Protein: Soluble scavenger receptor cysteine-rich domain-containing protein SSC5D
Amino acid sequence: FHRDSWGTVCDDHWSITNAEVVCREMDCGTVIEAKRGAFFGEGKEQIWLDDVQCTGSESSILKCPHRALGVNNCGHGEDAGVVCSDFVRLMNGSNRCNGRVEVYQGGHWKKVCSSDWTKEDANVVCREISCGSPLSQTIPSHFGEAHNLNGVKTHCVGNESSISECSHQDTSESCTDATVVCTNSKPIRLVNGTNRCSGRVEVYHQGQWGTVCDDRWGMQEAAVTCREMNCGNALSVKYKAFFGGGRDQVWLDDIECTGHEKTIADCPHRGFGEHDCDHSEDAGVVCSESVRLMNGTDSCSGRVEVLHDGQWGTVCDDEWDIKDAQVVCRAMDCGTAQTAKSGAFFGEGQGDIWLDDVNCFGNETSLQHCKRPSFGENNCGHSEDAGVICSATIRLINGTDECSGRVELHHGGHWASASSVNWGMNEAAVVCREMNCGDPVKVLGSYGAGGEQRGYQVSCSGRETSLTLCSLREYPSGSRIQEAAVQCSGEM
Structure:
C-alpha cells in the first residue's frame, strides 16, 4: 500500500526468502511456496516493487532491498505470490524446515508442548510445510523457549494434511517446547495418480513445485522416486504427461540415476531449471505402494515385504504357497508366479514380521485381502521369511490352475496377447517350460477374451528358454486377434 493505492510485486528475483518475510508480516506461519507468473491472477493498477531481495530476517517486505517504489520493468503477468502454512510455524531454526513448533488456534499463536509430541505429530508438520519427513533426534535440538505463549498438547494420527486437523488440548502448566527437524531435502510428490504412489513426479526447489522432464527417464529413476516416497518398487515409468501436464517450472531434465540414490535430486542432472522441455514431456511413475520384492535377481523375484503403519516388514513362510505368490506377482505386475520360496531363500529381512499363515485364493489384489491373522501376529523368525519368483515376461490368464490359461507376454513395456495364428506345440512347450509347468497337453482352449487391442504372432523352435526369445511379429493396433492359450501337465 503506497500513495493511497494498492499495487503488486514483480517476480524478478522473487524467492522463498522474500515469501518468508511476507508470511511473517501477515502473521501467517511458515512459508511453503513462492509463486511467480501471476499464479493467483493478474493485479491491476500499479506495480510498486521489483527486484526484491530479502535476507529473511526483515519485519516487512518494504524493509528489504528493492528498486525504488514504482520503478520496474514488469507487467502484471509477472505478479508475485506466496503460500503460507496458516496454522503452524517453526521458530528460531537454522532454516524454514526446523525449529520450535507453534500452532495458530483461537486467534492466537501457542507453543506446542514436548510432553505429548510424537513422531506422527512431527510427520504432519513436516509434510504440511513441504519439508519432507522428520529426522529422528536422539537429543532434541534446542531452539530457545517461548515464555509469553500459552501451551497446547497435540495428538495426530499421522495421515492429517494439517496439524489443525489433529486434536488439541490447552494446558496451563509450564511445559518444554516441542521441536522438529525436517529433512529439508528437495521433497518430491506424485500428482494426479490413482493413489499416493502413482502420478506425475514433482520436486520442490526454491519455494516452488516443478516437474521432471521425461528425457532419459527410466526404471532406475523410477526406483529412486518410489523408494523416496516409501512406495515400494517401481512398476512402470510414464512419459509425455501421462498424468497430465504440470504448471510453473520444469525443474529437472536429463536425470541419470544409478538407482541407489536416496533422493531424485541427488541423481546427476542438468541443473535445476536447465531444460529443453515443456509440460507435454512431464515424467510420471507407478509404484507398488504396499508390497515390494527385496534382494532378488531381477525386479520380479525376491523376499516379500509389506508396508504397514509406515514400516516395511516381512512375511512368514508358514502356509506360504503358489496361490499366495500369485497375488504378489500380480500386484507387482510381474506375470504369473513360478515358485513360492520359503526359508529366507532371498536372505533374512529385518524389523517386523507383519504377516503369517497367509491363505489366499489367488485372485486377491493384495496379500492384505487374503485370509490371515492380524498384522504382527506370528510365531516366526526371519529365517522363515517368504519369497517369490515371478515369470516377469509371461502370464497365463483365466486358467483353471497356474499352469493353464490365455497366453500374454510382456514386451516393449506392455502386456499383449499371443495370437493363435501358427500357435502350436513348439510355442506351447516354451511357455510350459518357462512357467515350470511341465509339458504341453493342449495348445488351445476357451479361457475368455482379453481386453487388449494389440497382440503378437509368435514363432518358436521349441528350444527357447523364454517366449520373448521367439520370433515376434506385432499386429497393427486395433486389429482383432484370436488369442492363443495353453494347458500344461503341471509336472516337472
Residues 394-488 form a domain with the Mac-2 Binding Protein fold (CATH 3.10.250.10). The mean pLDDT is 87. The chain is about 10% helix and 30% strand.
